[in-house]
């Protein structure tokens, strides 16, 4: 989701001059690394439940009771799959969400705030936004953080204070020990926007003619479409470069998260061409969408909009239609040190209805990867 820009007059917060560097990671040192033939991985955007509109406070779609039900559903899904490693996006409020989850399942964790607005510690605006990404791992895996890079958004974003007013994205990299060998794991969350395809451009022209948007509005929509897609292309480039710089050349790397793009788009194709492959590529299962308005109850309840009307802008109109189209945008991707043959299973997960709800507006991805 996109963090709406905060008005300039809220730039009254004075930032702390001294920066304290603390690695926000709990780890359990064990004499030997985790022994396994197969590493079970789960990636899921757990959904903040925010609409990302507001200055003092972001709008919230649901009550605290429903949010708690979603959290309990997540615990059931974890128990069902018993993953060794879990990557999560949109964990909010941090660090509370990830420390609670790690305590409930007895895993180690690393995390980094991704979007928070203007914050010192827990205080600042928006008051209910301090969201980010995390990796959790079974304690015997000896999870440690090895790197973090902000991919976009500008400003300053740390786990302890932040100073930014736009959507921001990142990649967080950790390392686990499997069979006495290091395996690197990363979580990322890329910028969300409509995809720049022939279909999207044709739709913009169709909507302009049908609802009377001006030529200037059409040109502005095309400009915005191109800019948002260029945003993701730059994220792909920066992340590929950072992974190459941080991860030793022949070490296994598993990259998980919400990429907000489909596998055929230029940004994803670029990233894959840097020595990665999609664990889902060889799967033939029918259920493949991780953003699925046709099945996800949260999308149906909170995102469904009458698109047969004129919106405040043409770009908003096409964005709403794009939001209601099923697509696969969440991935577990591995580098060339893990060949396609090491992928035993890759499937959609976190799509079970518990107590009448889905645990997120996304479905997740689960993969079993052989570690030699």
Short key terms for the protein model shown above:
372 residues; alpha+beta; Deoxyribonuclease I, Chain A; 7-stranded mixed beta sheet; 6-stranded mixed beta sheet; 7 helices; 17 strands
What would you say this structure looks like, in words?
There is one protein chain. The protein is an alpha+beta fold. The chain has seven helices and 17 strands. A seven-stranded mixed beta sheet has the order 1-4-7-3-2-17-16, with helices on one face. A hairpin with a 2-residue loop joins strand 11 and strand 12. The longest helix has 32 residues. About 6% of the residues have low confidence.
Task: Summarize this structure briefly.
This protein has helices spanning 64-81, 96-105, 198-211, 215-246, 266-272, 297-302, 314-323, and strands at 25-26, 38-45, 85-91, 107-115, 118-120, 123-125, 131-138, 144-152, 156-157, 161-163, 169-178, 181-189, 253-258, 276-278, 330-335, 343-349, 364-370. It has 372 residues and is of the alpha+beta class.
Which secondary structure elements does this structure contain, and how are they paired or packed?
Layout: E1 25-26, E2 38-45, H1 64-81, E3 85-91, H2 96-105, E4 107-115, E5 118-120, E6 123-125, E7 131-138, E8 144-152, E9 156-157, E10 161-163, E11 169-178, E12 181-189, H3 198-211, H4 215-246, E13 253-258, H5 266-272, E14 276-278, H6 297-302, H7 314-323, E15 330-335, E16 343-349, E17 364-370
Parallel strand pairs: 2-3, 12-13
Antiparallel strand pairs: 1-4, 2-17, 3-7, 4-7, 5-6, 5-10, 8-11, 9-10, 11-12, 13-15, 14-15, 16-17
Helix pairs in contact: 3-4, 3-7, 4-5
């Amino acid at each position: 989701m996109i963090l709406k820009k905060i008005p300039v007059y809220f730039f009254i917060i004075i930032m702390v001059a001294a920066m304290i560097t603390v690695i926000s990671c709990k780890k359990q040192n064990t004499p030997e690394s985790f022994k396994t033939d197969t590493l079970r991985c789960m990636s899921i955007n757990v959904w903040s439940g925010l609409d990302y509109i507001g200055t003092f406070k972001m709008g919230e779609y649901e009550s605290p009771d429903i949010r708690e039900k979603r959290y309990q559903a997540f615990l059931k899904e974890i128990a069902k799959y018993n993953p060794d490693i879990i990557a999560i996006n949109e964990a909010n409020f941090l660090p509370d969400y990830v420390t609670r989850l790690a305590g409930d399942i007895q895993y180690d964790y690393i995390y980094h705030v991704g979007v928070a607005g203007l914050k010192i510690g827990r205080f600042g605006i928006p008051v209910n936004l301090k969201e980010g990404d995390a990796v959790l791992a079974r304690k015997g895996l000896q999870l440690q953080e090895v790197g973090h890079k902000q991919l976009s958004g500008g400003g300053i974003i740390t786990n302890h204070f932040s100073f930014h007013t736009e959507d921001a994205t990142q990649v967080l990299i950790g390392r686990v020990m499997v069979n006495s060998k290091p395996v690197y794991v990363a979580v990322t969350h890329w910028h969300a926007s409509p995809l720049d395809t022939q279909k999207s451009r044709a739709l913009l022209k169709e909507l302009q003619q049908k609802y009377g948007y001006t030529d200037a509005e059409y040109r502005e929509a095309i400009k915005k479409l191109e800019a948002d897609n260029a945003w993701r292309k730059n994220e792909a480039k920066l992340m590929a470069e950072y992974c190459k710089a941080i991860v030793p050349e022949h070490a296994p790397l598993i990259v998980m998260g919400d990429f907000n793009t489909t596998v055929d788009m230029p940004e994803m194709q670029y990233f894959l061409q840097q020595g990665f492959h999609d664990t889902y590529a060889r799967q033939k299962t029918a259920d493949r969408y991780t953003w699925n308005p046709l099945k996800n109850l949260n999308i149906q309840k909170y995102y469904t909009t009458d698109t047969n009307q004129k919106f405040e802008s043409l770009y908003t109109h096409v964005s709403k239609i794009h939001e209601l189209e099923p697509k696969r945008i969440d991935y577990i991707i591995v580098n060339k040190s893990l060949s396609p043959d090491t992928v035993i299973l890759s499937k959609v997960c976190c799509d079970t209805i518990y107590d009448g709800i889905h645990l997120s507006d996304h479905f997740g991805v689960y993969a079993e990867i052989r570690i030699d």
